[in-house]
TrEMBL record:
The lineage of its organism: Eukaryota, Metazoa, Chordata, Craniata, Vertebrata. PANTHER family: CADHERIN-87A, PROTOCADHERIN ALPHA-C2-LIKE-RELATED. Pfam families: Cadherin (PF00028), Cadherin_2 (PF08266). Potential calcium-dependent cell-adhesion protein. May be involved in the establishment and maintenance of specific neuronal connections in the brain. This is Cadherin domain-containing protein. It comes from the Eukaryota. Residues 22-130, 131-239, 240-347, 348-452, 453-562, 577-665 form the Cadherin domain. One of its GO terms (molecular function) is calcium ion binding. The chain crosses the membrane at residues 7-30. PROSITE patterns: CADHERIN_1, CADHERIN_2.
Length: 669
């Protein structure tokens, strides 16, 4: 059965009751929202009218103070719906429990007016509705739990059970609702805080409030409840790490960023607006060296960073928010300054011995040197060295102390002094170094023997020399210094044939000039062999000697002497020769002797005079005079030959001999 028919049935039952108590009003009940044309009742039947007369009596319907929702069929007497009836439209005020359409049925001939009341029964045709789709609430996070907040209620134009019956809230761990009943039975809900809010955990809560009516089926309407949690300053600023350590290289430029402190405050607005400051724990020195930007928390370099002065800076920074009851958080920062190789190593000569004797012993300590470097690590590790080509070496005696010792024999005569450069280098990158040069002077020691340029001197002296003639200069050399170099020359005594050399020669002790003391004669003495010594004046003195060989050189100071044919001095030699002597026969042999030496004594023979040049020949080398032909009677009986013997000197010396030849007839016995 359609629902509206069920209502009509109920109305009809009521009608009989109404009719009983009030004959003037006929009562019907119909549900709202009936379809056009739906029959509500048969008025003819209900009012006891003859159906056939209705047209004739011009039956009509008046609806008082309302649109024409209903009409009557004059043929059947049926009251039917002309336009859909909305109860909530007709009776907007909720207070009236019942809603009526009052009608008058008017008939003429005779005129009859029937009052009819059509009660419009509510149907659940409206869903509860909120005035706004969204309900915004601002709730402080400090609000205690149990606090209530009224929510605007939903309205449902339906009445009675079809009206709002209750509310539901979407699932929330923070909120629930309590449904209240108002004076006129209206329902509304209070939002109740179940537990304390935390903006930092959830700043906005989106809830759905559903209003449900009591109809069957129930209808509902929803509104979103948006709870904005208002911040309170309940969070202190915090640093990501309470304990930071940063490294920065020394000599970093002013203004360079060391660290950017990012403290955070979970609150919002001024409650999270932070200022940074140093705590009292932070020393003046640290505050002077590092700048803290109060609004950004950036720490920058403000003063010189010198690792050698300060290696670690400790600071404590406080971040404070600007909330009403401001909160703060703190952080300790350790700034470690890192070493840079910015210090040159240093050399300090602790002792240096100069001058020293050139014959100083090997391994003797000449100098003690210490080295240092203010840097640390490799930058501060230093090494000392000297050039490789030096007769010295370095020996590390203790930490950073070195001894310079002699490693090879020294010789002043080769290198009189040394410029020793000590170079210290650290292991930084790039390495730094320093150097210092010391001069070591060597003292002379008499360690050199005087040296003659030659070990053997041959000196030729022309005989007949003048006494006191300078023969030679025998100069020795001594590379030592001063008295070690000052030489004295003398002849080493040696007897030759009972003659003392110093009677023959003399030497200038200071310059080595050698003189002859007498005139020498080659024909008597031809050479002398002796030694000359040069001695220095060192202590002890050193000396050396050379052999001097004096050779007397011959001069052509002797004339040839004719020894054959023998004759008394100055006289003429007379020879007899047979007339019959053959051609080529030896007539005479001239022999001359010369006491000079070889060269000066080589003799040649020549005729100075000859009577007949065709008769005799003279061998110029052996002095033999031979016949060149047989004698004839025409030849004179006496022949005169003059022979000259000439030596080879320059100028040549000579002697002559005159030979008188007489031819005889018979052979000489
Ligand atoms: C910082 O760290 C050091 C060691 O790393 C520790 O001894 C000190 O207690 C820490 N300080 C704080 C405030 O955490
Ligand atoms: C702070 O924040 C900046 C920028 O986000 C970042 O570069 C820096 O490393 C942070 N500082 C620290 C200590 O975390
Ligand atoms: C010594 O140091 C000076 C600068 O101080 C430098 O000019 C020179 O080259 C160095 N000498 C050596 C041998 O290193
Ligand atoms: C040298 O002199 C000594 C005596 O003084 C003498 O006996 C000796 O015969 C001399 N020798 C010569 C070669 O003249
Ligand atoms: C001369 O010198 C040599 C060495 O050069 C030495 O053997 C010799 O004894 C010296 N002669 C004299 C007379 O001193």
């Amino acid at each position: 059965m359609e629902s509206w028919k069920r209502y009509v049935l109920v109305v009809l039952m009521m009608f009989s009751f109404v009719y009983q108590i009030s004959t003037s009003v006929t009562h019907y009940s119909i549900p709202e929202e009936m379809k056009d044309g739906s029959v509500v009742a048969n008025l003819a039947t209900d009012l006891g009218l003859d159906v056939k007369t209705l047209n004739q009596r011009k039956m009509r319907l008046d609806i008082i103070a309302n649109k024409k929702y209903l009409d009557v069929n004059k043929d059947t007497g049926e009251l039917y719906v002309v336009e859909k009836i909305d109860r909530e439209y007709i009776c907007p005020t909720k207070s009236s429990a019942s809603c009526y359409l009052r009608l008058e049925v008017i008939l003429e001939n005779p005129l009859r007016i029937f009052n009819i009341e059509v009660e419009i029964l509510d149907m659940n045709d409206n869903a509860p509705q909120f005035r706004r789709d969204a309900i915004h609430l601002d709730i402080s996070e400090a609000t205690p739990k149990g606090e209530r907040f009224s929510l605007s209620n939903a309205v449902d134009p339906d009445v009675g059970t079809n009206s709002v019956k209750t509310y539901h809230l979407s699932e929330s761990e923070y909120f629930n609702i309590e449904v209240q009943t108002g004076r006129e039975g209206s329902k509304f809900a209070d939002l109740i805080l179940k537990r304390a809010l935390d903006r930092e955990k959830q700043a906005v809560h989106n809830l759905i409030l559903t209003a449900v009516d009591g109809g069957t089926p129930a209808r509902s309407g929803t509104a979103s409840v948006i709870v904005h949690v208002l911040d309170t300053n309940d969070n202190a600023p915090t640093f990501e790490k309470a304990n930071l350590s940063v490294k920065i290289i020394e000599n970093s430029p002013i203004g360079i960023l060391v660290i950017d402190l990012n403290a955070t405050d979970l609150d919002e607005g001024s409650n999270s607006d932070l200022t940074y400051s140093y705590s009292l724990y932070t020393s003046e020195k640290t505050q002077e060296t590092f700048n803290l930007n109060p609004s950004t928390g950036e720490i920058t370099v403000k003063g010189m960073l010198n690792y050698e002065d300060f290696k670690i800076y400790d600071m404590e920074v406080i971040a404070t928010d600007k909330g009403v009851n401001s909160l703060s958080g703190q952080c300790t920062i350790k700034i470690l300054v890192e070493d840079m190789n910015d210090n040159h190593p240093e050399i300090s000569i602790k002792s240096f011995q100069s001058p020293v004797n050139e014959n100083i012993e090997l391994d003797t300590v000449i100098a003690v040197v210490s080295v240092s470097d203010k840097d640390s690590g490799d930058n501060g590790l230093v090494e000392l060295h000297i050039p490789h080509n030096m007769p010295f070496k370095l020996r590390e005696s203790s930490d950073n102390y070195y001894q310079l010792v002699v490693s090879q024999p020294l010789d002043r005569e080769k290198v009189p002094e040394y410029d020793i450069t000590f170079t210290v280098t650290d292991r930084g990158s790039p390495p730094l170094s320093d150097n210092e040069t010391m001069t070591l002077e060597l003292l002379d020691v008499n360690d050199n023997v005087p040296q003659f340029p030659q070990s053997f001197y041959t000196i030729r002296v022309m005989e007949n020399n003048a006494p006191g003639a300078l023969l030679s200069s025998l100069t020795a050399f001594d590379p030592d210094l001063h008295e070690n170099q000052y030489l004295v020359y003398f002849i080493l005594e040696k007897e030759i044939a009972n003659t003392s050399m110093s009677m023959l020669f003399s030497i200038n002790p200071e310059n080595g000039n050698l003189y002859a003391l007498k005139t020498f004669d080659y024909e008597i003495e031809r050479e002398f062999l002796f030694h000359i010594e040069a001695r220095d004046s060192g202590s002890p003195p050193l000396s050396s000697n050379v052999t001097v060989h004096i050779i007397i050189v011959d001069q052509n100071d002797n004339a040839p002497v004719i020894v054959s044919p023998w004759r008394a001095h100055g006289s003429v030699v007379e020879e007899k020769i047979p007339r019959s002597t053959d051609k080529g026969s030896l007539v005479a042999k001239v022999i001359a002797l010369d006491t000079d030496s070889v060269h000066n004594s080589r003799i040649t023979y020549q005729f100075l005079q000859v009577t007949d040049a065709t008769l005799f020949s003279l061998d110029q080398y052996n002095g033999e005079i031979r016949t060149m032909r047989m004698f004839s009677y025409r030849d004179p009986r006496h022949q005169r030959l003059v022979v000259v013997a000439k030596d080879n000197g320059d100028p040549a010396l000579s002697a002559t001999v005159t030979i008188k030849l007489s031819t005889v007839e018979t052979a000489v016995k």
